[in-house]
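Work through what follows:
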Amino acid sequence: MNITPFIGAEYRLENGLIFDARYNYGISNLAKDAGDGKVTNSFAQIGVGFKFGGN
């Protein structure tokens, strides 16, 4: 199992353009036999989108 809490933000402009960013912090050890080491899965995401019509 991979547990990755995240934090993020989104900004929407009046013309429908959307910007977002998120950071996922991996806390689960993904290696079954890593000895003294720990293998996790952390990553950052950025995105741009557009909302057509409506609210």
Remarks:
- The chain has a mean pLDDT of 89.
- Strands lie at 6-12, 17-24, 43-50.
- The CA atoms of residues 9 and 21 lie 6 Å apart.
- The chain is about 0% helix and 40% strand.
